[in-house]
Amino acid sequence: MSKVSPQTESMYPADFTMETAQKRKTRYQVSQPVALALLAAALLAIFLSGFVTYKVYSCKSEDSRNISNELKKGHTTAKLTDVRLPTSVVPDSYLVKLVPHLWGEQSNFTFSGFVRIKVNVTEETSRITLHSNNLNISKELTQVFGPNNETITVTSQSRDEARQFHIIHTGSSLKKGLSYTVEITFDGILNDLLQGFYRSSYQQDNETKWIATTQFQPTDARQAFPCFDEPGLKARFSISLARPKKLMAVSNMPKTNNISEPVEGMPGWEWDHFEESVPMSTYLVAFVISEFSRMDNGSFSVWSRRDAIKQAEYALQVGPAILKYFEKYFKIPYPLPKMDMVALPDFAAGAMENWGLITYRETAMLYEEGVSASSSKQRVAIVVSHELAHQWFGNLVTPSWWTDLWLNEGFATYVEYLGVDAVEPSWQVLEQFVVDEIQNVFSLDALESSHQISIEVGHPDEINEIFDRISYHKGASIIRMMDHFLTNKVFSKGLNNYLQNKAYGSATQNDLWDALTEQAHNDQVLDASTTVAEIMNTWTLQTGFPVLSVKRNYSNGSALINQTRFLINPESKTSRQDCWWVPITYTTAATKDFESTKPKLWMKKEPRVEVNDLPKGDSDWLIMNVQETGFYRVNYDKRNWELLTKALNSANFGGIHVINRAQLLDDSMSLARAGLLDYSIALGVTKYLNNELEYTPWKSALNALGFIDSMLVRTAAYANFKAYMSNLMARIYEETGSVEMPNEPQVTVYKRIRIMSWACSLGHQECVNHSISTFNQWLKSENPDKNNPVPANLKSVIYCTAIKHGGQREWDFLWERYQKSNVGSERDLMLTSLGCSREIWLLNRYLLWAVTDGSGIRKQDCARVFGAVSMNVAGSTVAFNFLRDEWDRIKSYVQKSGGFGGLAELADLLIPTITGQLEYQQLTEFATKRASDLGPATRAVEQTIERAQANVNWMKRNARNIEAWLETAVSGS
Ligand SMILES: *[C@@H]1O[C@H](CO)[C@@H](O)[C@H](O)[C@H]1NC(C)=O
Ligand SMILES: *[C@@H]1O[C@H](CO)[C@@H](O)[C@H](O)[C@H]1NC(C)=O
Ligand SMILES: *[C@@H]1O[C@H](CO)[C@@H](O)[C@H](O)[C@H]1NC(C)=O
Ligand SMILES: [Zn+2]
């Protein structure tokens, strides 16, 4: 599955679990600010001297860690964990027949269904247990047949509500090794909760058009038909769907033939029968019945609303090309006879990789040249690539259980970039990976409340909870690391062996590790005593990631490296003594070899190592973690930071690779934030940006500086911060300008968007005036829904700036355009921009609309509205107060809107630009009071609280120093 577009431009992390936060609260209430500042300064001094004198740590031993506590700590109520099906009966094939009552006079939002399941008995038993949820089973019609089609008596049927089990008790026992057939007749609700078999609608020619569609991952196939709903229980599926004649139905497989069969008792309806599938998991079954239009390229088709079908052209162009790329990459032909991709107006996730029938929310598949921004185009390519990668990794070979979800998602997230790079090489997506995946997830994984990516899960709430940024981005980052430390050749061969051996079956992460180990040993990339499992377990079973501290000895050309866990909050009480298997790569001013990413040495889960082949004398810089291929940060001694800063300020940035320039910015600013490096050194690194024109380092820098911005924005120091930033950006602003040129490279376009949005937000006069006047042109245009003078790529900047500096007139105008727009990405952008207002009442009204049925904002977009308002300086308090005051309303509206996003997303987006003690207290009080409501959002809320606490502490610790540094920097230049 693919996540909803990451809205979070810059993260505001921090560090605390709910419990510790509450214990500490009292202490801060009684402390005087002055005493605290002194204490903070003292702490900082301790950290710094600890670094300089080089403290030797030992590694924490593996068994001191209680893995299940790690997971459970956030849950206030104990959850059922033994939710697995008995293994005595396994499915072999399904015949599924469904009639959705959604169209015409008799529409009542229900469906009738019948399923015939062939099962194999592996252990003698007299019960058949399968999943069903929200289905009404006609018990009197349930039948069981024996191997010779003899009737087996059903004595009773019972229900285990907590486990969502339907249990059929038989009169005689079912024999091991034999096959039986179960028939169940049922009906269910075509819900509007975007899960299971659900309904969706849209307007066309002033009529409401209805769609019946599915979203099963992870545990909602059981809402559409009774089934053995676990990923490891693969079976063949034959699907039949009834529909009114003028509609069309698609499913995983092609239709058996083109002659359709009438539906008894339903004039004007017909059956579509689909070919029997290959063995597959229930969560990958899918079907869509609609009036959609279609375009195709051979056996590859795209579908959408008639009015949007032209926007599917790009998906149809890159889809088949990426599919071809993956056939080559995995060295296995695409296993199914066809591919359909459908853009749905209501969809909870970003997209879903159902085998042979990928479903998308519209913004993840549709793109209109000249209307949507280029970033939407990239998003389409990325999501299409992600879902296509799953057709092999996930669908052909499936994780046996959800515990390995991280591997499935991490893998698809890594190779989605390879797929896009293959079809759009000028986009530099492999560079962008470093900022968007690694650096992005570093900020989350540096929290105490982060979690290990390989987690035992049972209950559906827990399963839903792990579809989070850590699983996707950290998973992708450590898989990229593996691709580099094993070398591309070994990685690809091992992967291919794994897929070949496990095709149509299920596997665990250890099966992949074993295949890679075997290949690595054959090709002598790892020595015989080392396994991939041993290395990777340190990354998947331990929370967080390391920072390497490098202390060079300039006279003899050596360096000591030690590793400790990196935590963003200097006050974290969590142990830092974890150790990882760290692949170490480095280069120096003498060699400048930024190409070789094979490790020069390993830290084998040991606290320290020494390198001896460095240049002597103190004039050559050293950079570790070449192209940031390793999932770790690096800190250096003061002299090496000076050498690096000097190099960055010299011609051609001293020859330092562009990815490593981004790394130096991100590492140094994060180290400073964590109290491991003096802010004067980190801010000193940023000074070179005066001359930087590449996108990737700027993106890293602006993310890091975005944090400082959000911290200082309400303080007197903001004037100097603005001056410093304006000066830093002067050259790149001039270079990229505010006007688009035809045929510019994608990254130039991105650069302009980033730079302009910063410039406008800092109040750069030309930028603001340009935005307002362009918007006004639009406002006055004759037919604004047809003629929009705002260039597609600059819409985000211009809309937001005009709304921010405007009033109700501008707001209502944009709201009207939102309601009339037919382009999903444009609508998203407008929703985000509407949150930029500084009028409190407008923001409150907007939030209210976001949780009101029929307001014009779709359920799936509710979190976007909250995110937009809370990212706004004027809006964060408004959003937080609204969340507290209107909790019950929000809860009933959001909680059931489709599992994944929902509350967790809301909590995540309510990134408090909380920097004050009072707001922080209000946040913890709120979380405590509503703990029982939070469900799958528990962890997200914990993370939010941690971040807020760290913000509060950060202000106390750093605000003054930074203020002073900025003062000097601004007056000195
Ligand atoms: C069920 O049993 C049949 C006959 O022994 C066998 O061919 C088939 O592979 C089995 N299916 C599963 C899913 O075990
Ligand atoms: C819904 O409508 C269908 C078709 O008219 C009918 O067969 C079914 O019983 C109805 N279901 C309910 C719950 O009313
Ligand atoms: C099995 O028996 C049922 C009724 O007893 C009958 O309807 C069905 O057609 C039979 N199936 C086969 C495969 O013979
Ligand atoms: Zn996915």
UniProtKB/TrEMBL annotation:
Query: Per the UniProt record, which EC number(s) apply here?
Result: 3.4.11.-
Cofactor(s) recorded in Swiss-Prot or TrEMBL: Zn(2+)
Catalyses: Release of an N-terminal amino acid, Xaa-|-Yaa- from a peptide, amide or arylamide. Xaa is preferably Ala, but may be most amino acids including Pro (slow action). When a terminal hydrophobic residue is followed by a prolyl residue, the two may be released as an intact Xaa-Pro dipeptide
Q: What keyword terms does UniProt attach to this protein?
A: Aminopeptidase, Cell membrane, Disulfide bond, Glycoprotein, GPI-anchor, Hydrolase, Lipoprotein, Membrane, Metal-binding, Metalloprotease, Protease, Signal, Signal-anchor, Transmembrane, Transmembrane helix, Zinc
List, in alphabetical order, the GO biological process terms annotated in this UniProt record.
Answer: peptide catabolic process; proteolysis
Sequence ranges assigned to domain Aminopeptidase N-like N-terminal in this UniProt record: 91-284
Which Pfam families does the record cross-reference, listed alphabetically? ERAP1_C (PF11838), Peptidase_M1 (PF01433), Peptidase_M1_N (PF17900)
TM region positions? 34-57
- Domain ERAP1-like C-terminal, first and last residues per copy: 621-949
**Residues under site feature: Transition state stabilizer:** 472
Q: Which GO terms describe its cellular component?
A: cytoplasm; extracellular space; plasma membrane; side of membrane
The molecular function GO annotations come to: alanyl aminopeptidase activity; metalloaminopeptidase activity; peptide binding; zinc ion binding
Per UniProt, Zn(2+) binds at 386, 390, 409
> Cross-referenced CDD domains, in alphabetical order?
M1_APN-Q_like (cd09601)
The answer, when asked if Lipoprotein is one of the entry's keywords, is yes
Membrane-related topology note: Lipid-anchor; GPI-anchor; Single-pass type II membrane protein
| Location of the protein in the cell | Cell membrane; Membrane
Domain (Peptidase M1 membrane alanine aminopeptidase): give its ranges: 314-539
Q: How is the cofactor bound?
A: Binds 1 zinc ion per subunit.
Q: What is its main location?
A: membrane
What family does the database annotate? Belongs to the peptidase M1 family.
What is the protein name for this chain? Aminopeptidase
Q: Which organism is it from?
A: Cloeon dipterum
